[in-house]
Amino acid sequence: MIKKKIKKKFVQRLQHIVRFDVEFDCKHEERSSHKPLISFIQAGGISDKKFLLGDLIISINNIKIKTISDLDFEVNKLNWGDKVLFEVKREDKIQEVKINTVSFDSYTKKKTVWPIEVELKHNLLKIKNKGIEYEKFNKEIEDGDILISINSEEILSESDYHKKRSKYKVGDEIEFEIKKIKNSKLKRLKIKLINFKKSIMLNKKSCENFYLKKAGALLFKEWEATDFGHNHEDWNMRREEILQLEEIAERFAKQEDQVNIIKHWLNKDIRLINKLVKPEFKDINFKLNFFSLIFHPKIIEKLKSLSLTSINECCYSFLLTGKAINGSWDKNLKGNIKSFEKLISVRDKKKELFIDKISEVTKNFFFNLIIDKKRELNIKYLSIQNNKPSKRNAVLSSEHCGGFENIISLLKFWFNRKYGLNKAEVKQAIDDWCKSFFLEYPDFTYERIEEIQEMELEDEPEYTEDENSKIFISTQVNKKKVNGKESFVVKFKSFPDDYELEKILEKGKKIFLKIYVYDVTDLNSDKYYEIQDTTGDTDKYFSNNCHIIKTENFSWSEGNNVLVQSKVLESEFDRPNEIAFPYSVMQLPKYGKRKLEFRSFICTEDLKFDENDGRFIFRDNDHGSFIAEVYYLDGYEFNEYGDYPEILAYSSSVIDVEYKQPGYLELNRRKYKDLKIALSFALTQDNENNINKNFDKIKEDIRYGDFSAEGNINKILSLKKYYEQASKNKINLDDILKDFKKNSLIYERYEIIDFLLNLATKDGSFSNKENDFIDKISKQLELNKENYQEIKKQKTASVKLVDFGESAGENVFGLNKNMSNDEKMKILRKEYSRWNALTNNSDKTIRERAREMRDLAANLRSEYNK
Amino acid sequence: MSKIIGIDLGTTYSAIAQLDDLGNPEVLASTDNNKKITASAIYIKSQNVVVGDKALDALAATPKNVVTETKRQMENDVVYSEEAGKWVDKDDNNKNLYSPAQISSFILSKLKSYTSDVKKVVITVPALFAEKARVATLDAAKMAGLEVISLINEPTAAACYYASLPNVKKITGKILVFDLGGGTFDVTVCNCEGEKVEVITSRGDKWLGGKDFDNELVNIMSDKYQKETGKSLDLENKNQAYMEIAERIKRNLSLREKHAEVIEGPEGPKKIEITRNEFEQSIQTHIEKLKMLMEEALDGSGLKPENVSHTLLVGGSTRIPIVTETIKSVMKKPPLKGVNVDEAVAAGAAIYAGLQSRKSLNEAQKQAISNVKLQDVCNFYLGTLIQEDDPVLNRKVTANLILIDRDTPLPATMTKRIVTLYDDQEAISIEITQSEGREKNREFVNIIHEGELKFPDKKPKGRPIDVTYKYDTSGKLHCTFQDESSKEKYEISLRPESAEDLRKNYEAIEHIVIE
User: Fold this and answer.
1) Are strands A578-582 and A592-604 parallel, antiparallel or unpaired?
2) What span, in angstroms and rounded, lies between the C-alpha atoms of B246 and B236?
3) Taking CB atoms and an 8 Å cut-off, how many pairs form between chains A and B?
4) Which residues of chain A have pLDDT under 50?
5) Which domain holds residue A26?
6) CB of A191 within 8 A of CB of A131?
7) Residue of B362, B377, B432 lying closest to B408 (CA atoms)
8) CB-CB neighbours of A839 under 10 Å
9) Complex ipTM, two decimals?
10) Where are the domains positioned within chain B?
11) Cα distance from B288 to chain A (closest Cα, Å)?
12) B118-125 and B3-8: which strand pairing?
């Protein structure tokens, strides 16, 4: 009978589950698969000297167990004070172990609390998960630092750490020797081991010191409720939620950051807001649109409380005027909203809704519609001026209507204009105002504004591009097929705010998006720092180790074959979401596994790029800047100090690639041209007439890429050398091909076929011998058969005399002996169909060739069909 | 009131049909010999031309003056040289000789004379007739004083005729029309529902027909004559005459296992016997082509032989037994017999002519064809040349961008966007292409029109141009290349009938007396 494996669910029975003060060498999530092999025993604890390190527990109270989870399940049935019988496997023998569990209180007194956990990474024992109990120790140590020894005993592994820990009791002094990752210096730190009881107290205190007291209290309560984290699943989940709660108010107050705008928050985070805000704000859905929020009675009330009674200025009216058509903060214009008291109705062109008579849902729906259709919103409101109520009308614009963040930006104006707060003070005021929605934060009152004024906070120094007008882009690069071509696609995860770009365009400047690609495989930060510390010639290091990706395709290139994607950003409608680089156009500098960095610039027309290496030219320098390399290695941010005003934004993304042909740095171009000449002469090397006939064409068509005297001399020498060899029939084709393969890119291998076919068909005929020669080259260069056949068909279609020899079928249609009859029939039908379609081609030669080929295909097929 | 008629302008035989007073298609008989099919042959005797069967009579005496198989030359720039007795490439020295369109106009004029008051006409052409050949057909009609209201594909016309037959309900479903004439072969798959015919796809070979079979027979005759006498026949000068004999042998072998003829050769007359088996062996390559094209048509329509309810035969060469056997082996069932295969196309053209000019029909005629409906497809890929990256050669190459796919139901409209390659590009060159296959390579497409779209201003590369092709039911192609930013456009309606050329053509033949 097959037993179905049932996963045992851990259900906590006692408030504090029985602990034996031992640990096993595995992560918590691995407990269901790992054997209970003891790796730590608390010295002085209930298991001390009863269990031994390395014992494998095989039963508990006569119940056999296999995994740590099995053991947990059985331990969950025990009560404190029980005497428990274990069977353990110790040095291949089964032994019984009896343990008295005593009490939870006794456990808390004897259990030591250690300040760190460790993890073995790349043979280094790295520190992780620091506790809060040892404050001084905590300040000195960072996650990632390396543990060397405890009390001068070297620690080599995680199990070694547990083994060494097993020696120490509560109150023992421990000296840690730790290597700081930051500066590689050794640090010795001493602590006195505390017990778990004290740890509970310290944790409680720490939670009480949380800025959000409720969250802190909740955190401790949950820790206690989950048996001080012993019930792992529950604790991890709750802790995460509570810590998030702590962050909520901070995030909420940072509405000026695009990422923190509430409408972009996940719904689960929005639910957290509702848990944490003061009861009177619980029914506000902060994710709603600007109108729904600004017309929420609680927000109206909160904003009105900021009004300046002395000069009878209503803060709320001021804010609404920011949306009023023809309204202005500076003048007492008709459009301004004055002494707003209460909203009476809202209407668009068609209908009027009375606020008191409609539900919240209807109201929100209406506002959404107004914003979606970009209509103007007509409002009727009650205004009280000099205690005289009157009904007034106003028209609000729904242009640029976002959500809560719009209220914040309008409020900033209020603080600045009416209270004269500087930027830093406005920031503080906004922070406090936002947080005042939350539990435990004080309400935001006029007194608080006065306090802020007295703080005399200083504004941060302003750079050329201040925070508000800074443009950001963020990119990501992936491999993808675009229009059937394998490509790298640079995806713009975020694109600059149109408004900021428009501002620059208004100044009459052209803005470009430019993407260059570099091979950064050989850049190494250790080497870079070493050079920086020694010779300081990092420019040379970068120019030798970081190369631009090039292309032979002129429509993709700038300057000296530099691969670039360049786009003028003219209006908000031409922002690309992604830009592709077909793999086939890219020439990498080196062969093999490479790392490519796609560097995206948004820049003004003033920024110039070096035509040889694509790097931007900084001011009057005569070469490109290596700042992108520095940025790649140590994160020094572009424009951090306003050094590059022409660069409006920069982002880079890295991807791995395998380049399966020689890189352009590895190729000897002259060698390639020499071999091309050699192959061209080899085509006719046994026929002197043809050698002479081809000489001119070879001479004319093969260029050395430069017209310098040196280039021409090389070319002439090469022509002479291979002409002589060909005349004596001494060109060794196999050697040439071997060399050619080493020195050519894949497309150049097709190009030589193309060239040889041109050469062979130049006289209007294509002989069987020429066909065999080119077939052989194609085979040895390992070209794709179909691609090769297609090129050959194109080149020979308009040649008057074609002789494919005896085995024409095999030669012309690519049939071979390994094919089944069905495969051959299929190919022949395809060929017949193709050539038949060409029998009415406007070129007479093609027409006649097509008829020949069509008949040949039909004839062969009828032979196979017999 | 002038009549509207249908004409089947064939490679070896032609026919003319009209709707009778009750709306039934009626193939008109020759006024010379009362035959319903007229040989597509011309005998040129100075200022006169003799058209039809009588022209063939001159083959024995003056073979070089007899022109046959003109239809096969319609797409070529050739003229008929009486001196050489064959079609030769047109050049400055021979430009006054007869072009294929002029010769065809004589045939059309002859057919026109079988009835009175004919002005408007529907002419049938092979499904895969190239644009140039279609234009030449239109020119021929104009020179013959006929206004072509539509060119219709031969198998479509045949399907139209079959669909209008009184017992039409028997042949509903997917139908394969097998049209093997004297010079061309078309195979068309269509869907017939009652009298509604929807063409799905057509395949064909413009150089496959009865004449090719005759040619094989002439080769057998020559071989046998040589075996007997040691000398071969004078195929260079007397080919036409031997072809006449071969056709007779072919007809006989369709009924008997063997046939003997007395052949005149350099060594005097010899009796030569040819068996049906010998004949069938000699045409194996052609039979293979028929098979392949049927398979292609089935594949192109996404059908298997068992999904096709009937195969309809059109064209005289379908009488050859091995042809019907081949059909049976591919389609897994014998073809449908019982209709006059020589007249079906002309009769279908007459029905289509009626459909195109309902106003001029009487009530009975209107009633008779009221339910006939026809949906044809585009038989070519229509495209334009663009510059494109070639991933193999890693450079820009000229490639064919297809706008309208083959087998697209007519009328069809398609727009695609292309962009400029360079900054400040001043113009784009326009090359409209036509191809039977899905060709990317410019070598393998026909350029049917060339032009240029100039831009009024300068723009960076990537300037969008919308290319729109409209192909109507009469086979007229309207192309627009519009610059999106300036709205500047280049428009062309094909077929272009060059008035100047046509006038010259007409002047050359206006004094000719047609017998």
Assistant:
1) unpaired
2) 16
3) 104
4) 1-10, 462-469, 707
5) 22-109
6) no
7) B377
8) 23
9) 0.85
10) 3-165+339-375, 210-282, 381-497
11) 6
12) parallel
